[in-house]
Each structure stands twice: as C-alpha cells, then as structure tokens.
Amino acid sequence: MRAAGCVFAEDEAALIAEAAGSPDELESMVRRRVSGLPLEQVLGWAEFCRLRIVVEPGVFVPRRRTELLVEQTLAVLEGVPEPVVVELCCGTGAVAAAVHHARPDVEVHASDIEPRAVHCARRNLDGIGSVHEGDLTDALPEELAARVDVIVVNAPYVPSDEIAMMPPEARDHEPRVALDGGADGVDVHRRVAEQAPRWLRPGGHLVIETSRRQAPLSVEAMTWHGFDAHVVRSDDLDATAVIGRS
Fold it and tell me: What is the pLDDT along the chain (246 residues), one digit of tens a residue?
C-alpha cells in the first residue's frame, strides 16, 4: 500500500485488517485500495462527528471539514424547539445523521439527485428521517414549504476546469455531479440561494459549505436572494461556510 502511494499506509492497513472477515476478504480489500478506491468505500464506512457513516461504492465520501456545517446548523438551532432541517446534496446523509444525533428532536429530511447516494443515505437515516430523490428542492414534499428552520448544503464547488486536478480517489470514484460546481464553482450555490426562501420559515437559515476563495461569491449569491449572509471559518477543520438568515 505504501508503494501504491497511500500516504497513511500503516494506519489504513490496520483499519482494513480489522474490517476484513477472512484472508480472502483482506486480500480483496487491499487490492481495491491499491487500485485507487477511497479507503472509506473499501471499509464501507467513514468517521464523521464521531459517528460511523455507511459509505457505498460510487457515493461521495464525507470529509472532516464538513463537520463545520453540523456545528453551524446546531448553533443556529439553539433554542428552537422541534426544528425542521433539510440537507440538500446529501450524499451519504452524514450531516443530517450528525445533526439528529446531537438533536434527536429534529425532523430530518435529505435529498440528492444521485440514486446511489439516495440509497446510501436511506441506510444512514433509517428510522431517523426521510430521504428524497431529485434535483435540490424539487425533491422535497410540498408540506415542507415555509416550515424549514435550516437548509444545510454541501453542494459541489470545484470549478469544472479544476476537476482534472483533483486526487484520483475523488475524480475517478465519486460522481461528477457531487464535485462539479460549474465555471466558477458556485453555480449550485446560486440555485440553492434562489430556491431556499420558498422553503424556509421567516428567520430560517441557509448553511452552505464553500472555499475561502469562493466565499465572497457564495455570500453574493445569498445576498442577491434576500439573505443576510456572513462567512464562518474553522482553521482546525480547514473549512469555510457561508450562513444566510432569511
């Protein structure tokens, strides 16, 4: 695994050895990892906010930096009884699962356009919330209109012409729809900012992951659609988010 370029080969090998149920399975898992499959897809899970999140092949792997979205969602929900939270572009549903773990009184919904992501998220949110298949808010049931306290989104924000420069683990094994943010990386942010007001209650929040470089564009997108927006940065997580209040 070290020869194949795995930077943390020893740590990864220990996790794979622990997960394998037989020598044949161990060999198969090592072979898949060496071929470039993300470790989390090999193991079948990723650690996120101290939870084990199911990760199926072909589904976007939750990153540690996205824990900032959980922190910010919980912060704006403080004091809100029995809130409604929607995670768009949910992938595995990791954010929704972590928010519900911290706040069991939350009514959780999630959506994704990718069928494999929807299948995976339904496993992670089984007995917790509802997962809907479709494009952004088009997937949501009408009954949620003007009822949602927080829409939280890890939308794709890599500019199209930079996809080729991403690590092969991402560009070759995660769906492009989960990576490609358009010409400047903010196309989906603009669409979400346009759609969100219809679903948020007055005073509700839109929480979007972005990059330090693109944060001003994400703020601009929210402001254009009536949000009072600001940037939040975590150096510990190397993460950036934009928070908008309706």
Answer: 555 556 566 677 777 777 878 877 877 778 878 777 788 888 889 999 999 999 998 899 999 999 999 999 999 999 999 999 999 999 999 999 999 999 999 999 999 999 999 999 999 999 999 999 999 999 999 999 999 999 999 999 999 999 998 887 788 888 889 989 999 999 999 999 999 999 999 999 999 999 999 999 999 999 999 999 999 999 999 999 999 999
In the structure encoding, which two tokens stand for residue 78, read together? 């403080």
Q: Are 86 and 131 in contact (CB under 8 A)?
A: no
Q: Which fold has domain 64-245?
A: Rossmann fold (3.40.50)
Alpha helices per DSSP H over 110-214: 115-124, 168-173, 187-195
Sequence-distant (6+) residues with CB within 8 A of 206 are 150, 151, 153, 192, 193, 196, 200, 222, 227, 243, 244, 246
Beta strand 148-153 pairing with 84-88: parallel
Specify the domain boundaries for CATH 3.40.50.150 within the chain: 64-245
Look at the block and give the residue holding tokens 């394998």. 20
Q: Which amino acid would we find at residue 56? A: E
Structure tokens at 174: 């995660």
